[in-house]
Amino acid sequence: MTSARWSAVGAGVAIVAAVLVLVIRHATDRQYQRAFGLRIAATTAAYLAAVTPPPPRARGGAYDVGRLLTNSRALRTLPGWSSEVEVYHGTAPLVDATRPALSVAQLTALDDGPRWRHGVALVPLRARGAERVVGAVAVRPRRLTQFRIPWTFPATLIAVAVGVATAVRRRPLARYAGAAALLAVAAFADVYGAARRSTDRWLLDTKLLLQEAAIRVPPPRARVALDDLGPVARGGELVPGDPAESAPRRLRIGEARRAVVAVLIGPNRWAELRTAPAEAGVPGGGAMWLLALATLAGPMGIVGVRWAERLAQRRELRPAAEAWGFLAPAAVYAVAFSLFPLALGLLGVLEDPRGAFGELTDPAAWASLGTTAMYTLYVPAALVVAVVLALLLHSAKRTPRLLPLLLIPVAASPAAGALAWGSVFDAGTGVLWAFNPTTDPRTALPALMVIGAGGLIGAQALLFLAALQGIPRPYIETARLEGAGVWRVFWRVTVPLLRPLVLLALVTGVIAAFQGFTAVYVLTAGGPSGATDLVLHRVYRTGGETLALATGALLLGLTWVQVSLIRKRAHA
Amino acid sequence: MRRGMALLLTLVLLAPFLYMLWGARFAASLPAGLGFWLANSVVIAVLAASSQVFTSAAAAYAFARLRFPARGTLFGAMIALLLVPGIMLLFPRLTIVTALGAADTHAGLVSTGLVSAWGMLLLHQAFRRLPHDVEDAARLDGAGEWTILWRIVVPRATPALIAVAALAFVDQWKNLIWPLVVASSGVTPVAELGLATLARAAPTNWSVMATAVITSVPAVVVVLLAQRATLTAMGRALSPP
Q1: Which of A183, A441, A564, B216 would be a feasible disulfide site paired with A159, CB 3.0-4.6 Å?
Q2: Burial label, A163 (beta-carbon count in 10 A; 0-12, 13-18, 19+)
Q3: A250 Rama class: left (phi>0) / alpha (psi -120 to 50) / beta
């Protein structure tokens, strides 16, 4: 490929990255518009249910159709009301009678919950005090961004211009990185603004409904009780308040942030409508992270294109692409099933740090970690026995033919192993020992450690034996010829050759033991009195995601040792 | 003397299993779904084994034989990612699998065992030790890398491949925590899950013992059949070059 073509590819990457940001931002906008639409439609339905009286006599039907008609039509002339609304009685439209009716299927489907289609939120209108769907409320919300300058558009133009210039003129990336960061900030500002406006608009529209409801709630009376308006303000809370300006405000009430607006519900009577602001926490949820990734994609993409170009000049691109193709299945899996879940877990903590870390303040969680650390001590003990066993077998004149039977404990399922040992513990009660060790808090953990060691020793011994037999004869013969004794050969030749392997087995074994589960699940269920509540069992029992992450983070140090040991071997 | 000590230790390690085997004769009945459990477990373990052989062979070949930029870094990153402690990934993986609609399916069950760092490592070590001559000849004859991997390299590393398949099979067979969270509804019960549920209710019961023996048989058979190849491959992979 010519240099000009590579430039074009780079420019294309810059454009695609910018368009991606626009698309994500647009989707986030729609998401807020949808949330707002569904919410205000539900509020409207609640309003109509509150202000429409039942039919005069038992004529069937849940509401007085005449009053429902009046109340629905009144919505259209409500000054300041922001959305287009339609109310259906059964399937028949009330506000605009010439509009097509709903289908029966649509109405029936509403029983399962609200719908959002083609920019219209459709929620069920239920009979008062009953679940029966008697009609529907449709709301088409106005665009949240209308009459506002979306910051993303100019920022996108800048990012595209700078990106294309960077790619074509081969400029350093710093300026483009700056433009991309600007785009990220602009997109964030837009998403934040949309979130904020969705809350504000719901507050203002609901305020209008509440003020209407204050005069319309039957029966006619001078003072409407706040409790009668409560159902209209569903999804928020309505409390007595003070006179205030008409615009929504943000307040901190206790621990929580709240969006509030003052509502005039009677002569000199004020209430305050509160709700959780949509922009609190991480606005847009996952979309924010997608946005961050998309803004990074531009500069990273250009770096990648330049790298590919260099490879191509050295005629290394084809072999590299081929090698990556071989790696692809494993790499895709590693990203999708390790990296992505890892990020997902960390995100969960970031979104609610208070709740997440609250889990770790429980002393039982720390006790569980301590128990688990104690439990892992069986690994070094078992490995010592395995090494001894391997040495014994290695020095035997001929290896016993039944040796593979040593693999049975590791091949048999852990549940079966736990059962086997558990039954021996149990069967010996009264004969070999005085009590079943798994039922006493002092001996339950050691009993589980014995089971763990029993599963580990045989296979490790065979592995060490294989390694011992793999030590080249000349090493040992040379040492013996030079006059070294048996012990000297052992310490100077065998041990150094075996050490990395034992170390790897130790680290791997400890990591596995720290996540021990089956024997506890089968035999003790964490008891007696929490003595064997290993951390994975606790995590499983309590759904403790933070404890799981924290434990994993503790183990990452060991994993790092493991990986460096492996790399040393692989590149030896 | 040494042989005697080794024998004694072996006997101690095997004693509980022999006791269980002996007691299994007294079983009154076996659980109704046992055949279904075993079938599910076999399907999942075979899927995991074949997937691991395929992905590990391809990746190991690239790392052992092909020259490409960032090879060392990618090797380290891949091994590190695949060795991230499972406890960290348990719930997020469950979220992903559930979102994909794969909870309570074979696909969801096998999803955590498709690729393994150890399989990759074992094959990497095995491939590295093979002489280059046949491959070079094939390359001169115009064979592509894909052909070379499956027609020339893989057939000469059978012990390592058998080892990878056997380890994957047994690993998948023994897994309990993942089936417990992802297959909780009982639509696709696997052997280990069924056994553990049974054992929790009645730990020392001869029928449960017999079930344990039966559910252990497939994995034990696989291990015993593959033991020579596995130990050879591991010994080669782990001993000094």
Answers
A1: A183
A2: buried
A3: beta
Rounded Cα–Cα distance for residues A383 and A387 (Å):
6
And the tokens for A131? Answer: 């679940």
Q: Touching check for A330 and chain B: CB below 8 Å?
A: yes
Spatial separation of the C-alpha atoms in residues B75 and A563, rounded to whole Å:
10
Angle at A185 between CA A184 and CA A186, to 5 degrees: 90
Q: Tens digits of per-residue pLDDT, B67-82?
A: 888 888 889 899 899 9
**Is B4 an 8 Å CB contact of chain A?**
no
Higher pLDDT, B96 or A484: B96
Work out the number of other CB atoms within 10 angstroms of the CB of residue A210: 26
Nearest CA of chain A to the CA of B36: how many Å?
A: 17
d(CA A535, CA B177): 13
Q: Are A335 and B81 in contact (CB < 8 Å)?
A: yes
Check if the beta carbon of residue B172 is closer than 8 Å to that of residue B190: no
For residue A540, the chain B residues in CB contact (below 8 A) are 177, 180-181
Considering only CA atoms, give the Rg of chain A. 35
Average pLDDT over residues A465-488: 79
Contact B91 A345 (CB under 8 A): yes
Helix (H, G, I), strand (E, B) or coil at A470: helix
A471 touches chain B (CB under 8 A): yes
Q: How far is the C-alpha of B62 from the C-alpha of A477, rounded, in Å?
A: 38
Tokens encoding B59: 């990746």
Dump pLDDT digits (tens) for A183-208.
Answer: 888 888 888 888 888 888 899 899 98
Q: Is A3 helix (H, G, I), strand (E, B) or coil?
A: helix
How far is B95 from chain A, CA to nearest CA, in Å? 9
ipTM of the complex model: 0.91
Q: Which of A310, A311, A327 should we substitute to test contact with B (largest number of B Cβ atoms within 10 Å)? A: A327
Upstream peptide bond of A528 is cis (omega within 30 degrees of 0): yes
Burial category of A276 from C-beta neighbours within 10 Å (exposed 0-12, middle 13-18, buried 19 and up): middle
Pick among A413, A438, A539, A562 to test the B interface (most B CBs inside 10 A): A413
Q: Give per-residue pLDDT as tens, A246-274.
A: 788 888 877 778 888 888 888 888 888 88
A86 in helix, strand or coil?
strand
Contact A338 B82 (CB under 8 A): yes
pLDDT digits (tens, 9 = 90+) for A54-92: 877 656 667 888 888 888 888 888 888 878 888 998 888
Share of chain A above pLDDT 90, in %: 9
Is the CB of residue B43 less than 8 Å from the CB of residue B107? no
